[in-house]
Structures are given as structure tokens and as C-alpha cells.
Amino acid sequence: MPDVRRAPGPRGGIFFGSLRAFQSDPIGLLMAARRDHGDVVRLRLGRVTAHLVSHPRGIRHVLQTRHLHYTKRTRGIAKLREILGNGLLTSDGEFWLRQRRTMQPAFHRERIQGFGSLMVRAATRMLDGWERRSGEGPLRLDLAREMMVLTLKIVAEALFGADVEPVAGDVDRALGVALHVTNDRVKQPFDLPAWLPTPGNLRFRGAMRVLDGVVLAMIRQRRRGEARDDLLSMLMEARDPETGQGMSDRQLRDEVMGVFLAGHETTANALTWTLYLLSQHPGEQAELHAEVARVLGARAPTHENARQLAYASMVIQESMRLFPPAWLFGRSPAADEEIEGFGIPKGSLVFLSPYVTHRHPELWPDAERFSPQRFAPEKAATLDRFAYFPFGGGPRLCIGAPFANLEMLIVLASIVQRFSLRLAPGACVDAEPLVTLRPRHGMPMLVEPRVPPKGAGHVREG
Fold this sequence. Notes:
The chain has helices spanning 19-24, 26-37, 56-65, 75-84, 93-103, 109-113, 116-133, 143-160, 168-187, 199-224, 231-237, 249-280, 282-296, 303-306, 310-322, 354-357, 377-380, 401-418; strands at residues 40-45, 48-53, 70-71, 139-142, 329-333, 337-339, 342-344, 349-352, 419-423, 431-433, 437-439, 444-449. It is of the alpha+beta class. The strands form four sheets. It has a five-stranded mixed β-sheet with strand order 1-2-8-5-3.
């Protein structure tokens, strides 16, 4: 590419460049790369050349303006396919577009609003359990696990009409193993055959037996039963307009796995980090308690009154700014490209990191500070669309974003309506950048029932 410049970047080691740093501390490497070298940074990761693009102009170029020229043919997506298969999250081109059109009606606003009461019931069952288990003092819980199990139940019932409560713990553990092994595989410069009985391969196979067993059981049960008005039935009834063929069980498995697992994982992490940040900022937690008491009183949240929880929405958005569940996206240009005057070679990697961009000092003053007021309507209106992109952007904006936003609002309001939270003494909180941004050591939290408003009893629906 003779007419464009080569982007600056860290020199790294002679043989592997910055690969070792990426393996040990990917967030630290990317944050330092943007700080020291600018908004387009060249990184040598072993045999791979990558470019970190951190400014909204470049992100818009990749995700929107030239999105057809940036594919998902990356090493990370290839490894993720070993869990999710070739579904909406991991596919490209005409196949992706056909699947997106098939699934879109299941995520229309009216349909999502109808899931509000289901979300409330699931959250209420969880909180009732907390109340029964609490004694005279605060109850100690791993909030990360509680949120994983809750969001798994919600997405399974809402989108697939399935009750996964008996296996929710097994699914959570299996997904954690699969994500850890996948993360390790992505970072290795060379692939080992999947058939080798290495500890990682054996753990991965065991985890996938659990995940596939749950998903394929849902599909088999539905094939034997009656059709329902949910995503799984819509996928089963969908027909290719050219051939008239429906999806095979394998394709159904891939689409279900993407929504069922990826959807609940990201929402659970967002809720966990939100609750952590509130526990560390008592003033913001008190303001949220006041809003929930004012708007809801003793009523349960619904999709109607959730719209009035403006501060709760700001809290969630600020949490996803600091701890975006999907912290890193990868793309690969199908031909030589140019971003901000720098050459991006065909077949190389392009990294877009919400974690990094959400801390860009030109976009976010005092970026490490938790400040929900950044998302007050008058301020949010001035933000560049690609300065904040926890759900991605452009045509591939996450199809489940409206569902996740309503779920997070309802669950958060339900929790703070009944409980106060503080981090357990001695807890070690560290972000673990796997495929998603998980808390490395869980989230040990002390939860304590709040004194209800005078005259109020248990939360009631309506």
C-alpha cells in the first residue's frame, strides 16, 4: 500500500512483538497503545498484524460506512464458532442477512414489552429466596453467579419457552469453562488439534456436552410438542425463500446457542458490574433508591413504569461505559483499506474496543470516574454515536439490545427496591477480559433487606 502511511505502535519483542503482553494483560496493552501512539495503532501479535482503532471516526468507518468490507473472518470468531456454531453472532454476508431477517420479528418492541411481567416474576422469585435465606444480619452472595442464573432463566423462558432452573447452575459452570478455554486458544500463536487429550481440550469437550445437551433437548422437545409464539418456533417455521427448506437441527442449535448463551452472559455481566459500582458509590445508590421509591412505591416495575426510571437507565449506561460486557470486537478487511490515513492490509486484524474508546480522554473527561450524569438526556444528545457502543453499531447492532435494556432496568429496579448492597469485606474485584468482561473472582456482596416505605408491604404487580 504505497500511498498510505504505516500506523505507529509499540515495538515489542523481536520474534513475537506484543503477543506476550496481549496474552498476559490485553486491556493494559490496548490502553497503553492508544495513550502512547494515538487512535490507530499497529500491533504485531506473533504472526498476526492488528490495528487498534479507538476514535469514533474510525469505528464508524469499520462498523457502518465500510461495513461490507470488514468481515468476521478472524481468529477470535473462528474459535467462538467452536461454542456457538455458525449463527447470527458469528456469520457473515448473505447467510447472516437471511438469519437476521428471520429473527428480527421476535425482537420487535411490542413483543419485548410483553416479556416485562415474566422478567419481574423471575426477579421476584430470586429476591424472595434472598429474603428467606437472610437472618438477622446481611446475606453474603456471589452476585455474579446470581445474575448469571437469573438471566439464563429469563432468556430461556422468554425466547424459547423452556424452564432451565434444574440445569441453570450446570449451564453457568459449563459456559465459564468454555469461555476460558476459548480465550486461551485465541491467544495461542499455534493451534493444537482438537482431538488431542490435553486438559484444555478435555474440559472444553465436557463443557460442550452440557451446553449442547440442554439446547438440543429444547429443540427435540419443541419438535414433539405444539408450536408457540416464540423465537424457537419462528426459527423452526422459517423457510428459505429459494429452496423452501427449513433449518436443520444443527442450524437451529447454532442460533439458539447464540441467543441463549451469548445473550444471558452479557446481560448478567452488565448487571453484576452495575451492582458493584453502586456498592462503591453510596451517594448514587441512595439517589437510585429514591427514584425507585418515588416512581414505583410498592409496585413492581413494568415496561411502562420502567420508562420513568431515568436515573436507573443512566446508571446502567454509565456502568456499561466503564465495564462493557463485549469489551473487544474483531474485524478483518477483505481488501486493502485505509483508516485515518493509515494503511490496513487485507486479511489483517482490526480491533475495536469499547473498553478503550469509553475511556478516551477527548470523549470522556475524568474517564475512570463513575458518573451516571454523563448520560443525562441533554448530555447524551451531544455524544458521537460511536463514542459509546456497548452493543456494537451499524447494521450489526446487537439484535437483542432492546430486550437486554428492559431486562436490566427491571432487574435493577427490583433489587434496589428491596435490598441494599455493599461489597463483602476482603473481596478482590478484578475484570477478567475473556470473550466477555467477567469479574475474575466472582462478586461477593452483602445484601440486606431495606426497610419498606411506611404503609408498604411486599412488592405487588400492577
